[in-house]
């Protein structure tokens, strides 16, 4: 009886995957992207709520400490995100190729890899935490807040790695709503615990970190219950818990663009914070806090684009594996249109109501003034950012890791970092803010050139894009 139920569940899950190659692309994108978008918005909102709680409950220097800690936190989670993006893309392609056993091998390898990398990041981060925080621009006033926050986050990192990684796999294998619910769970836990820990227990920024850690652990438990269920076609099986070199190489290759983007963001933040302190003078710490506030606002809209990309990824990956290139390109074009509409809306909101937005985070007049200027400047290029992000994910979804990595690096490493070095020398403090939209615009132009040159490959030779075994780079 149990075997019969498992077989029925297996056939049901396989039908979920087959729909990616048969149902209308627009309805598929809505089905897969909307839950991801809602989850990403919710995730972004709880980061915003955290900053509001910290800004009003602890103070502006605590916001600066959080601004120092967040890119480091993002770098640690980038390892889990890399494995999640790589494994989910690879599993989508394998399912499209009807190679279900190989998809299960990817799942088992991903779990072991996540555990190993998560533990390594935790240990190394705790050992060298203070030097890392100083490297990212923490002053003597800001360092205690950043250190207190990151000590908790690093310990919880092992659970967060697996949550991020397997939530992406859950979405890619036909469970977008369940993946959305896992993110909702983390948001609810965080929003309930953060004010309790910060205001009632008076734990300050450590309370915010503990609330985040509890939320991450709840998400980890949720996704593990899904993949431990034998009724699901893609579930943990003991025989697949092996580190397979070829699978690891493919996962890292496909997901590396996502990790490198985070790594370059960290390099950018080091240079940005250094420039803000140098050119901002006595207002240097407040300028760092201002960027943290503006970045959280910008990320609210970018999370919608990320959700769209997550919805697009399994559709593009499956149809690429099934060699249905017209459907693949239709999903890509539709995602660009929606993403551009979202970023344009964000641009209008930020330009029209900047002071009202940043005043939610603080009542410090200096911080409000700096944040208002920062927000209006960095949003200048916002309408073109969606196109660049979607195209990078598109190349990633079809296993074109080299192009995805190149485009991911172009914004920060090729354009933004040089702009951060050059423009402040010419325009002073305002040049620091101006460097951010400059990098976005130049990267978008480069992305347009690349996709135009590569378009023929996806439209005129659909039967030659992939063979049975290899992921093309």
Number of helices: 16
Please compute the radius of gyration using only Cα atoms: 22 Å
Cα distance spanning the termini: 45 Å
Largest sheet, in brief, is:
none
What's the quaternary structure here? single chain
Instruction: Categorize the overall geometry.
Output: globular
Number of strands: 0
Fraction of residues in H or I helices: over 70%
| Arithmetic mean pLDDT | 86
Our count of domains comes out at: 1
SSE run: HHHHHHHHHHHHHHHH
Structural class from helices and strands? mainly alpha
> Uncertain spans, ≥5 residues at pLDDT below 50?
1-6, 461-473
What proportion of the residues form beta strands (DSSP E)?
A: under 5%
Describe this protein's structure.
This protein is an all-alpha fold and 473 residues long. It has one domain (22-464). It contains 16 helices and no strands. Helix 5 crosses helix 6 and helix 14 (382-397) crosses helix 16. The longest helix has 38 residues, at 284-321. The protein is globular, with a radius of gyration of 22 Å. The termini are far apart.
Structure summarized in a few sentences:
With 473 residues, the chain is mainly alpha-helical.
What secondary-structure arrangement, pairings included, does this model have?
Elements: H1 2-18, H2 25-57, H3 60-96, H4 100-127, H5 129-135, H6 143-172, H7 176-200, H8 204-227, H9 245-280, H10 284-321, H11 325-352, H12 354-358, H13 365-378, H14 382-397, H15 401-427, H16 429-459
Helix pairs in contact: 2-3, 2-7, 2-10, 3-4, 3-6, 3-9, 3-10, 4-6, 5-6, 6-7, 6-8, 7-8, 9-10, 9-15, 10-11, 10-13, 10-14, 11-14, 13-16, 14-15, 14-16, 15-16
